[in-house]
Automatic annotation (TrEMBL):
Organism placement in taxonomy: Bacteria, Bacillati, Bacillota, Limnochordia, Limnochordales
Database matches in PROSITE patterns: HTH_DEOR_2, WYL
Protein name, per record: YafY family protein
Transcription keyword on record: yes
Pfam families listed in its UniProt record: HTH_11 (PF08279), WCX (PF25583), WYL (PF13280)
Keyword annotations from UniProtKB, A to Z: Transcription, Transcription regulation
Recorded superkingdom: Bacteria
Amino acid sequence: MNRTERLAAITLLLLARRRVTAAEIARTFEISERTVYRDLDALGQGGLPLISQAGAGGGYELPADYRLMPLTLTPDEAIALWTALQAVGSRDHPMREAARGAWLRIQAALPQELRDHVVDVGAGVDVSRMLPDAQVPATVFATAVRALRERRQLRIWYHVPTTGHSTERTVDLYGLACVRGRWYAPAHCHLRGGLRSFRLDRVTRAELLTSSYTLPRTFDLAAWVRGLFDYEQRAEERLPIEVHFSPQAGRRVVDDRFFREGLERQADGSFKATLTIPVSDLDWYAEIVVGYAGQARVVSPPVLRERVAMLARGLLEVHEAPAGAGGGDTSSTPPSP
């Protein structure tokens, strides 16, 4: 946080705890005690009625009657806010500092009785597993949030582990979604010329540009999440599949949302995709494999391989030249004498 944000947070800390030492403030905000003293001096010059208590048990405090207007919340509402903000602020979440600052503001405005109630209940609530598993660099997340808020284009450096390559792209960010422990960002990718889905933990760097963009009115983030992930959540029979892709298909398949989550690069430069799909999606996956025009081969299960072969035979029949139309076998039989 910058200094202005830190001064506001120190004020809220004083309101929440009433008396704190310079050492406690330094530990809370990960700054030196010298910086703490400069900040407290600035707050005093700004009109905050700080009281300094020397000696053992001393510290800095505000007058007992100095308070913000009480925040009207029910106990359940206060606990709900505390739970959500603690989940974000208790581990290495990209919005950890913002969450901590928000809770300090809320805590300072709560009536003392409700504040004590939250602290008591909070001691028996574990929120450590509510966070995403994949860590996103804080600077990347903050830049993405700002780009979304200000509708400004992003330049990102996107790393694909299966290939080991990174690409530089300019994107128009359409939203952020945390699904199954990972942060995803739907965006218009100017390199690919269309809507793409990016995993934020694979963005190694993000740079905010001055150019702006307009979010399409037809884009629905909730619908995008359902379309991208619901097929994995259906309560129906599922089937493991394995598909191999040639090295020539690599550039396409690493950007293919239907295979990339289970993709593994092989020593010879080819790719192997292993994933589990709903049985009802077999025909859909067969069509996708056929679309790779011979650069993809189904290893298992046999039922998927058979459906690919059936589609391929159908394509061959459709594209065979009719008898006598030419364009087929150009060899000729000598006429009879």
